[in-house]
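Example record

The entry below shows one chain as it appears in the dataset: sequence first, then structure tokens.
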Amino acid sequence: MNEPSPLLQRCFSEVLDESPRLLGRCLEAMIQALIGPQQRSGDVLVADGSSAAWSGLMHHRTAWVKAFPARLREAFERGDDGADSGTIPLQSDSALLALVDEADYNEQIEFKRMLQQLQPLVEHELAALDARMSSLVGLATVHADRNPLRPSVMARELYRLMQGSEPDREVRTRWLRQLAVPLGAELRQLYADVALRLQQADVQEAGYRVRLVSDPTGPRVPDTPDDSRYGLTTEWFDLPGADPAPAPVDASDAPFTQADLALSRSPVDPEVYHRFLAEPAATPAPPLTGDYHRAVERAWSELQSALAAYRHDEAALLAQRRQHAHLPAVDRPSRQVSTESPLMHSVWGEFANPHVRSQTLLALKRQARRQDQPMGLDVVRLLVNQVARDPLLLAPVREAVIALEPALLKLAVADPRYFGQVDHPARRLIESVAQRSFRFNDEFATDFQSFMRPVAQGFTSLLERPEVAPADFAQVLSALQAGWALLDAREHEQRERSLQAARHAEERQNLADAVVRELSQRPDIDHAPAFLVEFLYGPWALVIASAALDSPGVPDPHGYRKVVTELIWSIRRDLTLRMPARLFEVLPGMLQTLRHGLARLEQDEAAFQPFFETLMRLHEPVLRLRRARVRRTLGEVAPPDYPVLTDVLPPASAEQRQPRPAEQPWLAPAELAATGFEDTQAMEPAPADPVPTTAPVTMPVTAAPLASATAKTAADVARLVEGEWFDLLSGGEWLRAQLVWASVRGTLYMFISRGGRSHSMTRRTCDRLLRERQLRPVGRREVVLEALQAVAREPAASDRDAWVPAEVADSLERP
């Protein structure tokens, strides 16, 4: 295998760093799925099988989490083709099958079935990653089998761990049946993160061409069995075995005349430009005729008259821009602009005049000699106009694209179809500015104006050049990205602190849930009363988990597990009254260990006082005996006794002893501040039930009442995906925030707004804010690609608004 590129190495490193947490969450979900049947089943055999499966996962989990990164590293370095010598290949040869152990064969069937179930769960994110990864490894077309992170590699290495750790095939088979869904959820997020990293590094998608569609609700891709999972509505892939791409249609056969191409606003059907972009660049273009040149001269003459009559009114434009400035940013109507709109002269100089921009267009059409050149110029204008109508972009961003049109037009003379190239510097410049602008929701905010200032300067530098080349656009993009990188570096440290606190809390909670399950299997837990089970399953499980994370590899840090045995024994009156000396010996150290451990939670001691008071009342009968013996020895009069529980507390019920995973990760006070939860706690609805006095009370325990949500809210909740942008009302101010982290169970979310400021909230709060329109999904998409798609639906020479997908229109709906 050739030496991987530095970027590919960084991707590997990030995947390896994340893989222990990824596998831990996956195994946790499998354990929960396996515990469920055991709890519900009345069949002893099923219950025993499920018990062996989930207890086996718990037993092997720590070792697998440690070994998994090394396994993946070997697979990445090996760069094999996916052949798995550790498993038996499935063959149709009956002679070979006769030599294969039936149980082994069935297990292989389960593994293949698991892969088949896994594939559709990740197909959308995997398609984007396959395209960029193929480009990164130097391939011109997409080859899914060359993606080193493909699902089969990840699943195979985990399967090998299972084979090497568990000799019981039935247990392994149960694991495989539970693996696809949790592994698919984890890989889906992993693939989205890696694809985003490659996109940010300007790795382009390999092996596809832009294909505009006339019906965005129609089939996504050519209906072939081999390429269906790679489909996007505007592209096809040249895959081995797939149907060939449609043959290009000669645009000269379309019903238009060359004179139609001479105008500044072409009346030609956009479908013609659709076919034009789909043609190979080497397609011969017919020469332009005298009719074309006479028509372009007439258009030039008319434009000169319009140019002479034009009067620019900067004050009126400024008043129009500020007409709705008093409204909240999210409630302002989108300001309409197009290639015909005048712009601010103070920003764009002479190119603020729409007739000057049209003059550049017609001047280039006057110079054209081949039919593809005016068609390429028209494509640029059509696409600029579509981007200018995109409702997701703030008006100044759309105006900047309009102002840049003359520079974009100059490129089309030499390369008429350049906008069909996803990696062209001009297209990348527009897309990068648009994607960066999604961070902002207020065109009058200081931070947005700071963002637009270098954009305008870079665009102006291109407009001032008499001739431009793709390298000039690449240079402007590099300068902008360098400035953005400096800004991002300032926010990165704060953002990482917030994410680290959230991930640590989630890891601790997952471990605490595992501790609870272990405690529930102890024989002596059957004798524990409800208040003690509540304490052990709540704060003390967190104490054990916290100590385990701080002291990896130590069997029982600080003796927090050992003290559980002493604690349960100490409240059994039938034992302690017979062995009072042992209680007197154990009690001081036990209480010290309990208070020392609870101090790790940084809670007010008063929160646990009811627990210690109840514990003392249970110990009082034995302590009373000792005090009476001392008084008799000294001949003293007995003082009033400490209140004692006259009745022995009954053991907790089976329902109370049942282990249940926490609804959301518990956060310590310092973690609440680091994750920004303190800012949103005031938004938390009151919990339906009071929080037990012995449980940590920093965060309310809440549920997610999705059943009562409206269909609109339910659709918005489905968009709570990492990487998505939202408008969030916080402290009376509308902020543009990105969802950067969600807990495994989807009960806690963290958003990051400008300056790296974090905002964490529970699922219940998210639901309520979505219902009340205080949290609004914004949407995210490839702006240029959407413009290309919209061109195919645009009626000829129309001023109508561009088609907007229903999902986007939904996200822009006003209350």
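Notes for this example: The beta strands are 208-210, 235-237, 725-730, 733-742, 748-753, 757-762, 775-777. The mean pLDDT is 78.
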